[in-house]
Amino acid sequence: MIGIEILAAVLAGSGALIGGGVWLTRRRHQLFINRSRSDWVHDGQIIHFGPVGVTILGQRPRSMYGQGTWGALGISGDQLVFHSPNGRGDFHLPLAAVRQIHLQMVQVWIGKTAARYRALVVHYESSGEWWVATLTSSALEETAQALAKSCGLPVSSAGAVRDDFGPAKATRMDQDVYGEWRRDRPGTLYLALDRLLFDWRDPILLSQIERLDVIPHGGRGLFAADLLRIETTTPEGDRAVSGFVVRHAARWAQAVARRSDQTLPVWAGRKKKY
Question: Which CATH architecture describes the domain 4-159?
Answer without folding.
Answer: Roll (2.30)
